[in-house]
Amino acid sequence: MNLRRRTLLAGALGLPLTALAACAPQEQAPPESAQPTDVKTRLTVGLTYIPNVQFSPFYLAVAQDVFARSGLDVRLRHHGAQEDAFGALLSGEEDVVFASSDEAVVAAVQAPELRTFATAYQTFPGVVIVPADAGVTTVADLRGRRVGIPGHFGSTYYSALAALHNAGLDEADVELTDIGFTQVAALSSGKVDAIVGFTNNETVQFRMSGFDVVELPVQPADEVSLVGPGLVTVAGRLEDAVLSRVAEAMREAEAMIIADPELAMTATQEHVPTLADEAQREAAAAVLEATSGLWLRDGEPSVAVDEAAFERMGGFLVDVGIIETAPAETTIIL
Questions:
Q1: In angstroms, rounded to a whole number, what is the distance separating the alpha carbons of residues 223 and 87?
Q2: Could you tell me the residue range of the domain that residue 319 belongs to?
Q3: What whole-number distance in Å separates Cα of residue 320 and Cα of residue 24?
């Protein structure tokens, strides 16, 4: 399911070269083709949530001129709480959006022009979380128990379905309960026996509060059927050379953050002023630590797209009834 287009190399990755003007009288106008060497490709990148340290590679890439050095003039745009993840991208208000890859595949059924060209989280963040003293060691142990999810939609719901599917269960075998985005409170109070959340969000909150939990994987690590969040665009809107520069700038910013996490905290504070508070900063640093581990493949930050994993994801979403037919093409392999 890919749009495999030949990546432009060498000079195509650089900035436009200024034409060398031949000696001429001073009053002669310069050729129309001449352009300054600092001309950059302007684009808007959508971030599908309120400002958060999880978006720090984008903040850093702007603040530290990582995008600019790549010939990109990037404007970041945070989405509103009720905004469709791909609406602004499809309307042309955005050129790229950072979004859940599973949701992108589902959206591609109605908008087949959507393509993922970089995967930011090389490890899918969705997990099942249970109290450490619950005596639950596998997802299969949840048969007949209450499992809380925000709702029957989106990435957490797909994570729940994957967990059940891979454990040989289906929705009828558990009490899949809609609890809104109250997973931490619901599990802590015993309203549910397990929740589905993200390892770099709910798990971090539990550990910081002192509530001991255990994570259960939603899929086998060696053959995933759900892919982590990445960069999505519309086929044909941007040249592959531009997409490559965007992806590489994100990877470079991730590497900078891993080497010096304080860079991320400083860049994020420009967007999240509450990080000036010590407790808020400590919580954000814990989220960043959990998030940055998800960027790694073989110990190094990577933005590679696993085409086979996307194909499996489309098949899985069909198998569990989310979509009827997998989109023919969902990725751009650079």
A1: 31
A2: 2-14+40-122+226-333
A3: 70
